[in-house]
Amino acid sequence: MQPPLSQPHIQPFFPPQRTLMGPGPSDVYPSVLAACAKPTLGHLDPLFVGMMDEVKQLLQYAFQTRNEMTLAVSAPGSAGMEACFVNLVESGEKVIVCRNGVFGERMRSNVERLGAVAVTVDDDWGKPVDVQKVSDAIKANPDAKFLAFVHAETSTGARSDAKALCALAKEHGLLTIVDTVTALGGIELRVDDWGIDAVYSGSQKCLSCVPGLSPISFSPAAVEKLKTRKSLVQSWFLDQTLVMGYWGNTSGAKRTYHHTAPVNALYALHEALRLLADEGLENAWARHAMLHTELRDGLAALGIEFVVEEKYRLPQLNAVHIPAGVDDAAVRSWLLNDYNLEIGAGLGALAGKAWRIGLMGYGARRENVAVLLGALGEVLK
Ligand SMILES: *Cc1c(COP(=O)(O)O)cnc(C)c1O
């Protein structure tokens, strides 16, 4: 037998105030952080349930959708991804999956774990999804039921044409599953107008909320697919037919316990979405675009070049080549330790070759651009 564990004496944790300019989490709005510290209510308290109805209404606005099935999964963006696949895709079904970075590959893995068939359409890292290649794949696979792609590839900073891809899918009767984790709140996204059937996002990117929640929305066609499944949804926790008993299909419906909602995190999401609605979606998109051009011009003056061609660049995720002869890890830890400033490393094919500079939500501010350009200029000297 081992000796009993000794009593630990641990100090409280005091994180420093960093400036988060990586691929997420982004800087959280002060009033969102304050919302987390409000008194916890019971997850079936009528006042809390009323707030959840407002969260749903605010999410419908952010996604630009009238979908009834719109809610926040009580887990990060990756769980929203799983919720879309596990609820809609059944074993043996064919899904066309576009891969132009890390997150498309994760979609493929989700499909395969369900015993479904993934037909991959590959594009180089830093390039958008090629609509023509997707069209060819759909024609070559008339039995495919879904098209899945990432709107804003955070691993590369490339924006794909979600509107054109969804139109193509509709033309051929495919349901669409779209990753908008980094897109939501940062660039134009219109779930209903574009015909997106299942969409998921994350709280910690352009919404500037605390991490750990994943907004999702299913169209009536996606709900129909879910209701007419031949098999049970493999995941109990993510089964939306069960979750809706708690989130409610219609406002005012009686709620039943499914799991204990992350009450305080949902206060935070309510506040973050409220701030977005207050600013106005179009204004938020324009702010991200404007600060991206300021950052771009400042980086150009430092001789730093972008990974992605100008017309496909995401304003909220700026992937840039690390200048020749510069020590990637040393620069990033210098920025972190001396300037309390976090930028992202390259992922996958771009590891060691690129930095990823986020201008997301509350982080998309002129003072952040100035801090980053000043610090990077110093460090590169
Ligand atoms: C961050 C991100 C995810 C995963 O979200 P987590 O909250 O980290 O689970 C998925 N897709 C994209 C495009 C992302 O940027």
TrEMBL record:
<protein>
    <submittedName>
        <fullName>Alanine--glyoxylate aminotransferase family protein</fullName>
    </submittedName>
</protein>
<feature type="modified residue" description="N6-(pyridoxal phosphate)lysine">
    <location>
        <position position="205"/>
    </location>
</feature>
<keyword id="KW-0663">Pyridoxal phosphate</keyword>
<dbReference type="GO" id="GO:0008453">
    <property type="term" value="F:alanine-glyoxylate transaminase activity"/>
</dbReference>
<dbReference type="InterPro" id="IPR024169">
    <property type="entry name" value="SP_NH2Trfase/AEP_transaminase"/>
</dbReference>
<keyword id="KW-0808">Transferase</keyword>
<dbReference type="InterPro" id="IPR015422">
    <property type="entry name" value="PyrdxlP-dep_Trfase_small"/>
</dbReference>
<dbReference type="InterPro" id="IPR015424">
    <property type="entry name" value="PyrdxlP-dep_Trfase"/>
</dbReference>
<keyword id="KW-0032">Aminotransferase</keyword>
<dbReference type="InterPro" id="IPR020578">
    <property type="entry name" value="Aminotrans_V_PyrdxlP_BS"/>
</dbReference>
<dbReference type="InterPro" id="IPR000192">
    <property type="entry name" value="Aminotrans_V_dom"/>
</dbReference>
<feature type="domain" description="Aminotransferase class V">
    <location>
        <begin position="47"/>
        <end position="346"/>
    </location>
</feature>
<dbReference type="GO" id="GO:0004760">
    <property type="term" value="F:L-serine-pyruvate transaminase activity"/>
</dbReference>
<dbReference type="GO" id="GO:0019265">
    <property type="term" value="P:glycine biosynthetic process, by transamination of glyoxylate"/>
</dbReference>
<feature type="binding site">
    <location>
        <position position="356"/>
    </location>
    <ligand>
        <name>substrate</name>
    </ligand>
</feature>
<comment type="similarity">
    <text>Belongs to the class-V pyridoxal-phosphate-dependent aminotransferase family.</text>
</comment>
<dbReference type="Pfam" id="PF00266">
    <property type="entry name" value="Aminotran_5"/>
</dbReference>
<dbReference type="InterPro" id="IPR015421">
    <property type="entry name" value="PyrdxlP-dep_Trfase_major"/>
</dbReference>
